[in-house]
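S.,

Sequence below, as promised.
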Amino acid sequence: MNFTQEQMSEIFDEIAKKKDGYRELLKLSLESIMKAERREFNKEHSDSSNGYRMSSVFAHRSKLELVIPRSRHHNFYPLILALIKDQDNESKELAFELYRAGLTTEQVGSMFNKIYGQSYSKAAISSMMQTARKDVFAWLERELEEEYPIIYIDATYWHTRRNESVSTEAYYTILAVKKDTSREVLSIINHPTEGSNNWEEAFLALKKRGMKKVQLVVCDGLQGIENVIKSVFPQAVVQLCTVHLTRNVLAKVKPKHKAEVASDLKAVLNPDNPQDTPKQGITKFQDFIDKWIKIYPSLKTYKAPRYHLYFNYLNYEIDIRRMIYTTNWIERLNRTYKRTLRMRTSMPSPESVLFLLGSTAMDRKEYSYPIYQFKNSSKIIFE
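The prediction came back faster than expected:
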């Protein structure tokens, strides 16, 4: 059937007036081009047509379902589809990078409007990042090595919508030092609150992914955390974070005493004296408590036996003590998380937070560099 130019223009005009008419015209045009390309392909390769297949591409601000022609023998692949796919992948990657950098989906859509001259809805931008989401969540569930010399654990909190209400929820991160002395985020999981039982679930999830042993666990002083660690990783040494200890002690004293208390505690928690042993560290700490308990009786809680766990770092070589007596590395990562999240105030779901935190953790290029000081440690085995 042959149409005049005027008749074709009228048909196109009628289609364009319909709802989503321009998308339909785009779809018809692309499919017609691919059919014409297949006819030429079949002539050149002495091939024949072999039906169609469906394929999804992102075009005109939304997903477009195209009918792709196939050949029988030579795996025909339309050139126009390859061009669209390249642009589609570039757009998805750009959307993901902008979103990860801190822009909301609405802001990414506005940026795309400036770049491509088209308006992109929040839903369209979200659809473009589905592949990135799959990649991030697959990475968070990847297989792990059997042994990690050191892991650092800590939780950060963010405003998250759940069941039509917004509250501050906990996001647990486990950062490891690998046998090659590089670092790697092993896990990020969500629970509404932080507690020892939730950490037990996180550790058991690591074992399901292949992890069998850890030598040293560095963590804050969450009540009962040492018991949970020992129940899952019996051979692990527990080092409680000395920075958390300092914060907690200073929170119990008046402003006029803070400077003196901080100075006394700094002398106790000193990683740079090669002669110090855990026993000496505990003795100094108890002398410190005895001095200040006269003014602040609430410090009696620091007489508990678990406080020896703050001094296990003194069992190790002086070169690595500053790297293992605090959770500073993971707290730096938490600050990076919050810079990424800050522009969004509250997040629409826990999954959306995990997607952003996971993508941030994946992109920590400095973690791939070895930390050579660990090679000098005789107590922690790196090989």
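The longest strand covers residues 147-162.

Coffee later?
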